[in-house]
Design goal:
The complex is a heterodimer of chains A (417) and B (291). Chain A contains 18 helices and 16 strands. Chain A is α/β, with parallel strands linked by helices. Chain A has 2 domains: 184 residues, Periplasmic binding protein-like II (D-Maltodextrin-Binding Protein, domain 2); 195 residues, D-Maltodextrin-Binding Protein, domain 2 (3-Layer(aba) Sandwich), CATH 3.40.190. In chain A, strands 1, 2, 3, 4, 7 and 15 form a 6-stranded mixed beta sheet that branches. A 4-stranded mixed beta sheet of chain A has the order 9-12-8-13. Chain A has a two-stranded antiparallel sheet with strand order 5-6. The longest helix of chain A is centred in the first third of the chain and has 23 residues. The mean pLDDT of chain A is 93. Chain B has 291 residues and is mainly α. Chain B has a domain of 189 residues: MetI-like fold (Orthogonal Bundle). Chain B has 12 helices and 2 strands. In chain B, helix 3 packs across helix 7 and helix 7 packs across helix 9. Classes of the chains: A alpha/beta (417), B mainly alpha (291).
């Protein structure tokens, strides 16, 4: 009997000790981040550095799909199911208003303070705050660039007419089969292309929530794109061209100009690239007196409203977007920073001579409309302009239809655009 | 005794209800609500407005036409080619086993992978077709950038992928036909054409119907092939109903309208199947009266 009592006592005290031990151990907060595959790969070292320096937080990154929209599908599916397993999302700038309107995002003002955007380079501060609140903090900057061949011309064109003239001369001389390649497929990339040309012709997508897509400038922009194909400066295949296809054609040396994002710079200058050292970039062409526009396409972190670990998630956000982290991402992976202090870092400037050019392009950044129905607006635009590019519709007719469809969409959305 | 019968069927019935009836009813309810990003994803009753919107949505009707066009073209091609392949694979050839395995390969590939492959084959100017044409000094064919051609390219890719599926089903059917029927036909001096028409096809009918049903149901809901190969373009010329419903749900976060779209295409499918069944019955009766 006594033995049994002793056994019970031992068991009990072991149980108590274990419980106390578990309670006394520092609470470890898990923070989970969903990123597109390339960013998950690029941040691997930063994540392990964070986990080393923050023993109380366990940061884990979910490696999402490669394709931009597939990442959104994954995030939305998990959000619709209620409790999302993620605390932070790395999102494209054009998704933010939709996610915010759906009630999925936590405003960051309270967490990051009033001067959160203070260090951002001009252009990078756009698209993070709207409807009076801060919804995201940008990790990398991204903007549309006009790539040109330094072996074919001394200086890049600055107006649409110059681009056409140089292309035609080079094509006539038989030096390139094509003049200019860009993204003309029926998808988001086309909206980015159109926005740049639209601004370059002096037009606007929306002004005070009113579409301006049948303005003379908008029609001129669409006609210019159509004429590029008609005149054989741009191949007909552009109507199904995304970024990889345009890069492929340009990199093969078959075009004099290409519109693409900064990632193409690294691709074009790889050791086995035929165009290594023969390429430069600038901003998009524009009519005299109009802006050289670069559509902003940056990636940034947003916090989910349903996160159970907000304070820890903010620490992660601060760490991953810090000047030190951005510097590393640029040195090692070529990602464009968003902080002014990183752009002006002398070491980085020496290592990456095009940083100044990128900073200038970023300063020319223009935003796609910040609207919860942006996905619909863009769908209308790229579908419609695609019919202009294939030649199935004339520019004035198509733009009139686009204008009335966009007006109807914004009206039915009750001015919430 | 009756109640025991029902009791034994209950699990199966409950499963069917949970899988088919519940989602359909939920969609029916959703189609009377405005639930979108504009309502903060909260449902708000709006009665039949979504249905009115559907009726007046030119894009819905355009996509309906495009989906039907795609399905009719690809399924007819697949049935014809599938039958031909099945007849061929049923012949006592040398290396038949290997041939059967190889002919199944396209079907074994995931659709997205094969769609990426076709995207490359149709690539202008670097894909193999364009290169071949350029080698022959012929102009390139804008398979993926010309609305008049692109839907045919999608039909081509779909036919390539799913002909093996039809062939497999029909091959199984062919093997159920007793060989002595063919022997008797041969003794009677029937031509191959007559044998095919009087023996093979009638006995294969149940298999043809099953293949047709499977393929039609899949083709009318086509999504992944189109999404990867064309994204619905150019100029919206290859967008299918399923793609449009997906856009509304996942990109636009307009769940009310997406549900309405799905139910609308479901209704069209029901009408088509009903019409098909009626025509089938009439044709049987007509044939019967001829005999």
């Amino acid at each position: 009997m006594a033995q049994r009592w002793r056994l019970l006592l031992v068991t009990f005290s072991v149980a108590v000790l274990l419980t106390v031990g578990a309670l006394a151990r520092p609470q470890i907060e898990p923070v989970s981040v969903l990123m597109p595959a390339p960013f998950a790969d690029a941040t691997t070292e930063l994540v392990s550095a964070f986990n080393r320096s923050h023993p109380r937080i366990a940061l884990s990154v979910t490696r999402g799909p490669l394709e931009t929209e597939a990442v959104s599908d994954l995030a939305i599916s998990s959000l619709l199911l209620g409790e999302s397993p993620y605390d932070l999302l790395l999102m494209d700038v054009s998704w933010t208003p939709k996610y915010a309107a759906a009630g999925w995002l936590e405003p960051l003002d309270r967490w990051l303070g009033p001067d959160a955007l203070g260090d951002l380079a001009p252009g990078a501060e756009l698209g993070n705050a709207f409807s009076g609140q801060l919804w995201r903090f940008p990790l990398v900057a991204d903007m549309g660039l006009l790539y040109w061949r330094t072996d074919l011309m001394a200086a890049p064109p600055r107006t649409p007419a110059e681009l056409v003239a140089i292309s035609r001369r080079l094509q006539r001389e038989g030096r390139v089969p094509w003049g200019y390649v860009w993204q003309g497929k029926q998808y988001e990339g086309l909206s980015c292309v159109v926005l740049e040309v639209l601004r370059g012709f002096g037009g606007h997508w929306l002004v005070k929530n009113q579409p301006q897509l049948d303005s003379p400038a908008a029609v001129a922009a669409a006609s210019w794109l159509q004429d590029l194909v008609r005149q054989g400066i741009t191949p007909e295949a552009v109507a199904n061209m995304g970024e990889p296809e345009a890069l492929q054609l340009f990199q093969a040396g078959d075009a004099a100009f290409m519109r693409n994002w900064p990632y193409a710079w690294a691709e074009l200058n790889k050791p086995d690239s035929p165009l290594r050292g023969k390429v430069a970039f600038t901003t998009m062409v524009s009519e005299e007196g109009e802006p050289h526009a670069a559509t902003q396409g940056s990636w940034g972190f947003s916090m989910l409203a349903g996160s159970q670990h907000k304070a820890a998630a903010v620490e992660v956000l601060r760490f991953l977007t810090s000047a030190e982290a951005q510097k590393q991402l640029n040195l090692r992976w070529g990602y464009t920073p968003t902080r002014l202090s990183v752009f002006e870092d002398p070491e980085l400037r020496a290592a990456n001579p095009v940083l100044t050019d990128l900073q200038q392009a970023l300063a020319a950044a223009v935003l796609r409309p910040l609207s919860p129905v942006y996905a619909q607006l863009s769908d209308l635009l790229y579908r419609d302009v695609n019919t202009v590019i294939t030649g199935d519709e004339s520019a004035p007719t198509a733009m009139r239809a686009l204008q009335s469809n966009s007006e109807r969409l914004l009206r039915s959305s009750g001015g919430q655009g | 005794m009756r109640w025991r019968l029902w009791l034994l069927m209950a699990p199966a019935l409950a499963l069917l209800l949970a899988i088919f009836a519940a989602p359909l009813l939920h969609y029916l309810w959703l189609s009377t609500q405005a639930q979108s990003v504009l309502t903060g994803l909260q449902p708000q009753p709006i009665r039949a407005q979504q249905w009115l919107r559907l009726w007046n949505d030119g894009r819905f009707w355009q996509d309906t036409w495009q989906t039907l066009r795609f399905s009719a073209a690809s399924v007819s091609l697949e049935m014809l080619l599938g039958l031909a392949v099945a007849l061929l694979l049923n012949q006592p050839l040398r290396g038949r086993g290997l041939l059967r395995t190889i002919s199944l390969l396209p079907w074994a590939l995931p659709t997205t992978v094969m769609a990426l492959g076709w995207r490359w084959i149709f690539n202008d100017p670097y894909g193999p077709i364009s290169r071949l044409l350029a080698g022959l000094e012929l102009p390139a064919i804008p398979f993926l950038s010309n609305p008049a051609l692109t839907w045919m390219a999608t039909v081509g890719a779909d036919t390539w992928k799913t002909t093996p599926f039809v062939a497999l089903l029909l091959l199984a059917g062919l093997q159920t036909i007793p060989a002595d029927l063919y022997e008797a036909a041969a003794l009677e001096g029937a031509t191959p054409w007559k044998t095919l028409r009087r023996i093979t096809l009638p006995l294969l009918t149940p298999y043809l119907l099953i293949a047709l049903l499977f393929r039609l149901a899949q083709a009318l809901g086509v999504f992944d092939l189109i999404q990867v190969l064309t994204g619905g373009g150019p100029a919206g010329s290859t967008e299918s109903l399923a793609l449009y419903a997906y856009l509304n749900a996942m990109r636009f976060l307009d769940f009310g309208y997406s549900a309405t779209l799905l139910l609308g295409s479901f209704a069209i499918l029901l009408i088509l199947c009903g019409a098909g069944a009626l025509i089938w019955r009439w044709s049987l009766r007509w044939q019967g009266s001829l005999r």
